[in-house]
Records
---
Amino acid sequence: MNRLPKIPWYEITPENMYLNRRQLMVGAGAALSLAALAACGAEPPAAPAAPAAAPAAAGESAPPTATPDSREPAASTATDELGDPLNSFEQITNYNNFYEFSTDKESVAKIAANFPVSPWTVTVGGLVDNPTTYDMDDIRKMFEVEERIYRLRCVEAWSMVIPWMGFPLGKLLAAAGPQSGANYVRFQTANDTENMPGLRSAWYSWPYTEGLRMDEAMNDLAIISTGLYGKDLLPQSGAPLRLVVPWKYGFKSIKSIVSIELVAEQPNSLWMDAAPNEYGFYANVNPDVNHPRWSQASERRIGESGRRATLPFNGYAEQVAHLYDGMDLSKNF
Ligand code: MTE
């Protein structure tokens, strides 16, 4: 059975049509609007159930700034393939983990607001036949963007459902011509000390890095995202391009990428360096393997009260469980 996400009603709708349709809906269907609000919730997200994973960066105490973006798309009645409603644009862009800016999730949007994301280049290199430096125009021309509605499950035990715009990471890697010795992919975030105040924190081995095994990276579910809700990514969401790997804990989905390198050996990530007993290389969502400091059996969906059961591989087992055949996932956490 194919359980890939269903295509929602606003896919491939030009922005002006998307907004016009939204206005029409608002004018014509009060009942529909109420249903949409009920589905997506309107209360601000509560604090995560779990304690922060590591000591907080120095120097942040700004109050939450959940100011809705004026470009915020309407609440949607679309769902993911499990029938879960989407989180709202406001929720997705005002409750963020992006330690280069702040460890306070509700301050990231404000602190990152003026982060310069254009011009931007990303290099694809290492063990490849065609090392390339792309700017965002190249990326937009070469890789057709599609919508993928994915659940994002943070290691801190909160989750959201997000309508990403993006393209398969495998297409970008294939264009680079991987060499036979390329077993892993290493990703790196911008190291912009001028514009990313969180980089002053000495707790972490900046820049933020992450890695995937080559077959994980080539799996169709792994995407490079450039937008959400039909809009370009905002800085707090990892503009102008980020990884999204929905079957892994959210920290694998590295933001604001400047370098993608194919390598022979398993790369270390920032989190593996920070707390090797707590964060492994694989980081597959797994309700049966607890974090040393909290349970991973359940999660809090942002906008919902109560908790829901966490699914193995975040509900994507059918597409990815085979990648780990024969592996002990309690050891390869
Ligand atoms: N990427 C970078 N560069 N820096 C970060 O702090 N946080 C990660 C991940 N990518 C992070 C990052 C974590 S812990 C999570 S849960 C997700 O981004 C959160 O993505 P979101 O803020 O878009 O929901």
---
Amino acid sequence: MKNIVIFASGGGSNAEKIMGFFAQSDVAKVTLIISNNTNAGVLQKANRFGIESHLISNDDLKSPTELIEILAEKKTDLIVLAGFLRKIHGEILRKFPNKIINIHPALLPKYGGKGMHGKHVHQAVIDHQEKESGISIHYVNENYDEGAIIYQAKCAVKKTDTADSLAARVLELEHEHFPRIINEILIGHR
Ligand code: GRF
């Protein structure tokens, strides 16, 4: 059994799908949810699955010795960022080379980088009159949204789309593909 640790700052709908998928799996299990936000919906979701969660401060992220110890204790094989809005410290990147992945709600390399999260991403896609958007699952490196791309899936952008309607379509793609791609990574198919 491989061990997945999810980092999430928000509602955690992706984390929920991943916890659900791996609750039935003999490949891996989600062993821990890490959040930097006391009010994050993901914490209740972890509770419902009986999965341990751990709150960290932004200082813990800047000097991550304790966090690295926790990840080591959990024998972490893969760190999944699912709506985690902070940068991952270089020390963590070095300890987990090619073992940290993120999902971004657009077709990178476009519409990524600092400040490109949530509604901002979808509004920028609409403002540029793109005909399609989608999801990018990628490895994490020192720069926001610049690590190697593992998988992308596309959807149409409609003329009538608002940032909200596009966000909903993209989120559906995330839910459909993220757990499956994580599984493929863990069994060495990606
Ligand atoms: C998703 O759109 C993901 O692409 C981005 O943050 C959002 C998280 O949503 N990185 P949720 O918390 O999983 O519902």
